[in-house]
From TrEMBL:
Matches recorded under CDD domains: M48_yhfN_like
InterPro entries named among the record's database cross-references: UTP_pyrophosphatase-like, YgjP-like_metallopeptidase
Protein known as: YgjP-like metallopeptidase domain-containing protein
Source organism of the structure: Vogesella alkaliphila
Phylogenetic classification of the source organism: Bacteria, Pseudomonadati, Pseudomonadota, Betaproteobacteria, Neisseriales
Domain YgjP-like metallopeptidase: 28-229
Cited Pfam families: YgjP-like
Length: 237
C-alpha cells in the first residue's frame, strides 16, 4: 500500500505547483506528468530534502510538459466549440476575415480573423476576447465592492498567474486572474472579497477570514467551486 503523499512543491515561472509524492519500493526516483499534475515516485527511505533537489533539477522539463499539457487541453476544448463566460457555456462560431472581431450574440460567441483554423491562432483570439471582457466585468464588480472595503484600493490590474487567482500588495494594488471571467460571478466576488480583506490583513489569520466573512457572508461555496473547477478554466497564453 502506498504511503500518504507528503507535501512537496516546485516554483515555476507562473507560480508554485504542488507535487504529489508516491512512496514505492523501487531503485530510483521518477517524475511524471499525469492528468496535468506532477507526480514524483520515490523509494520510502529517500529524504524529502533530496527529493526537493531532484525536482529543482527537473524544473525546466516539468514546466515544458505542464505547458504542453495545458495547451493541448485548451485546444481540445476549443475544437469542441465551447467557451465559458460567467459560468455559462457558449458555442463558438468562427469565420475567416482580415481583421479580428468578436461578438457575443445569444448563446454563441462569433469570432472573425485570419487563420482561425489553426488552434494556436484560435486560442489567442479567444484569450484576447476573454481578457477584454475581464477588464470590463472586473471593473464593474470592483466598483460595487470597493465601498465595503476597510481601506481604499490604490489600483488594480489583470493577472495571468497559473496558480494564483488574485493578489494584493502592501500598497493596496489588487490583481485578478483574467481566467476568473469564465467562472460564475459569485466566484469572482469571492476572490475580490478575499483580496479586499488583504487590504486590512496581509495574512490568512482568523482576523483575515473574519474580514472575508464580513465582506462576503457565505463565501465558502464559491471557494469550494474554485477548488473543484478552477483548474479546468481555459488558461492558454
Amino acid at each position: 500500500m502506498n504511503a500518504k503523499p507528503a507535501p512537496l512543491s516546485l516554483q515555476l515561472p507562473h507560480g508554485a505547483v504542488t507535487v504529489r509524492l508516491i512512496r514505492r519500493a523501487r531503485q530510483s526516483v521518477g517524475i511524471r506528468i499525469k492528468h496535468g499534475e506532477v507526480e514524483l515516485i520515490a523509494p520510502p527511505a529517500v529524504p524529502l530534502a533530496y527529493l526537493q533537489e531532484v525536482l529543482a533539477s527537473k524544473r525546466d522539463w516539468i514546466a515544458r510538459h505542464l505547458a504542453r499539457h495545458h495547451a493541448e487541453q485548451d485546444e481540445r476544448a476549443l475544437t469542441q466549440g465551447q467557451v465559458l463566460l460567467g459560468g455559462e457555456s457558449y458555442r463558438l462560431h468562427c469565420v475567416a476575415a482580415s481583421r479580428h472581431q468578436a461578438q457575443l450574440i445569444g448563446d454563441t460567441l462569433h469570432l472573425a480573423g485570419p487563420m482561425l483554423e489553426q488552434p494556436a491562432r484560435l486560442a489567442a483570439s479567444v484569450v484576447g476576447y476573454l481578457q477584454q471582457e475581464a477588464r470590463q466585468r472586473f471593473a464593474a464588480r470592483l466598483a460595487l465592492w470597493q465601498p465595503r472595503a476597510a481601506r481604499p484600493l490604490s489600483g488594480w490590474g489583470l493577472s495571468s498567474a497559473r496558480t494564483r487567482w488574485g493578489s494584493c500588495t502592501g500598497r493596496g494594488v489588487v490583481r485578478l486572474n483574467w481566467r476568473l471571467v469564465q467562472a460564475p460571478e459569485s466566484v469572482l466576488d469571492y476572490v475580490i472579497a478575499h483580496e479586499l480583506a488583504h487590504l486590512l490583513h496581509m495574512n490568512h489569520s482568523p482576523a483575515f477570514w473574519a474580514e472575508v466573512g464580513r465582506l462576503y457572508p457565505g463565501w465558502q461555496g464559491a471557494r469550494q467551486w474554485l477548488k473543484q473547477h478552477g483548474d479546468s478554466l481555459f488558461r492558454y497564453g
